[in-house]
Amino acid sequence: MSKRIGILTTNFYSPDGLRMIYGGAERYGFELTKLLMDLGYKVAWWQIGSGWQKELLHGVQINSIRETKNEFMTFPRLNQHFHEQAMEIDYAIYFVTFLAYPQVLEKSISISHGVFWDYPEFDSQLPTESAKKEWLRRYHIALSGPQKVVSVDTNTINWINATWPGLSHKLEYIPNFVDINSLKPRGNTNNKIKVIFPRRLTSVRGLNEACHAAKVLTSRYPDKIEFHFVGRGHSDLLEAEALKWASENKNIYYYWQPPHIMYEIYSQMDIALIPTKATEGTSLSCLEAMASGCAVIATPVGGLTDLIIDGYNGILIKPTSSNLIEAIEYLLNNEDEKQRMGKNAKKVAEAFNIERWKQKWEKVIKQVFR
Fold this sequence. Notes:
With about 375 residues, the chain is of the alpha/beta class. About 35% of the residues lie in helices and about 20% in strands.
């Protein structure tokens, strides 16, 4: 009889269940679910919602829990309801580390998708010293409960080891992945350099800086460069505003595509922008751009330094529009450097092949769910 695994997350769909979230974490969730099924497990998901149920994949149900209360950046009542509703599961995966508070199944794993407390507004969520101490106390409990904590980057592991050295035995580094077999031949046949911003439309991803850089450089080099903003917003209204803005600016385009189409998009691009300001792991967008041979301009934030070696397979900059403009302009006017970094990016991406990711995950699964 197949063993059953329950996975708890915050949002795979919007809380009303009407809008799937197309982000790196959600794509990770699909691949993890398929791996678990290939290993013979039955899988079900739970998330915040209004009581609806959906089929995430064939035979995989996602259930919503009527609980939204957030305390000190944790969801103790969501955690409680998950354990009440998922009584028939044998094992649990807490898809975000803080969801493993205050209780966990004996045989369980949690996942860190990167440091999420490095953005400026985080302090406003915990305005007092006592609130910060309570968050730290709860986060320590969340990390201590599961048998293993899988981290997608070394930044998180270094922080945890420096803060609580006694937790090091629980930590497993499994960086994010790229499907090398899905790569498309490069096909940019026009004379313009194509720059892609393959991110969600949020300020923390460097959207505002990228938009400013696009306006400056398309004005400065109207016959030499074009920008593609490819990613979802948090609402239809935001996406409509992005489409309107792009349509008013020559050589700037906005659209989004489902994940399985993105490799075709990357194959048409020359430069990829990953100008993240905070809350970043080993970005799937960055990995896919690297694997497609794009020269990458990124920031030394979160797990991006696990992927980009400055001057070898990309350029690391501070997340400002002036730095972004300078880096893009450098690659625009130095074709040999752009080509060299793109080739090196493709070589480095091979180390993050999804097959290696599956092997590492399978090893952890067997250790914990044996």
